[in-house]
# Entry
Amino acid sequence: MTEEFEGMEQVRKIRAGDVRTASRLIRNLEDELPEAKNAIRRIFPHTGRAHVVGITGPPGAGKSTLVDALIASFRKQEKTVGVLAVDPTSPFTGGAILGDRIRMQRHAEDPGVFVRSLATRGALGGLSKAVGDAVHVMDVMGKDLILVETVGTGQQEVEIINHSHTVIVVLVPGMGDEIQAIKAGIMEIADIFVINKADRDGSHQLESELMSMLNMVTEFHGGWRPPIVRIGNCFEPGPFGESLEELAAAIGDHYRSLVETDLLGDRMKRKTMVEIHEALRDAILAPILKEMTESGEMEEIAGRLLRKETDPYTIAEEVARRRLK
Amino acid sequence: MAEKKIRIMVAKPGLDGHDRGARVLARCFRDAGFEVIYTGCHQTPEQIAAAAIQEDVDIVGLSCLSGAHRYLFPRVVEVLKEKGAADITVIGGGIIPDQDFPLLYEAGIKAIFTPGATLDTIVQWVRTNVQPRKS
# Structure
């Protein structure tokens, strides 16, 4: 009874926008505490209101500075903003330097802005396992926009697409990303392209290359052709002074376009599919693997495989047959 | 269940812009397996406290070499308390004369590390005295 009451209190506090409670829940999600899952169960019915924007691109592209400028822009429109800033965990030490927030500190005391840094903790794809649920938490807090900033190795951050309505790919001239953009599949996930630091050499070349690539696409999903926004120094007036407002407007336009073409549901469905798969993996596969490891069966199987007495697929079928009746 | 990590904030309150030491510490904490939120220079105590709460850190490490620690460090503790986060540990370091230690301890600073303290000492202190927060 007390646990249920505490649970309801937690939900009430999060819906009221209580930062401490929300951040603690995100911590519990990162630490994979069982009660965190129960909390998500409770808040899940209240999700689905926020516009989730993923921001990705290679390191050094200026994503955090851009996020900082976008926060200011959205706050001028009196929208509340949540930010999930993800940085890589060191595979050797397990620690991480979460340094995105440093660029957004001018908003630290604004009650309409909640910035939360997360480490990947070994997850691939540029995000952490907890990000999906952390988005739900900020959504339930009532944030109008949730900006998710990924690690940006340039090759692996496609996972952002599973959690966002709008994906912004940030590129910079002269980093060799003219080529990278073609290699990485980033072309396919971008709803908006930003050429950041566009005052640098190579910015026109990059824009032309992006334009040529876009011109080769015969049909755009939902009829939305990704705009290319060139942004120079975010804070200096001049030729790029209006570009940030242009970007903020494009973000709003994209959301409207999703609603009008009925594709918003598609994006949300993609996220729920990912969540179901994750949850099923946790519920079905993880306990089996744990038991097999603890009982020593895994070691025994490894031995048989090393001696080529069997193969992984036969093993898997046999385990499935035995354990999943 | 995943391993619980210590979340530590490294912050420089006030006007002191010499951040090399703070950066070295940040890397050191990362190498010790902590998750380090580095907020950099020129932070007000109010900004530091607000960030510490948003990030659900276990401990805040303040660095000051300009001599303003007597006001800034206790002020961080005070603001955290005002915001209901008195359970966040606050430690400090930098150029801090011995005679200021009692004032700082009394204000709630749990440990002070001045030049000569080894990185290892600091890490061990954190490991011994700070538990990653449970729910």
Summary: Chain A has two domains: 48-261, 274-323. The longest strand of chain A covers residues 81-87.
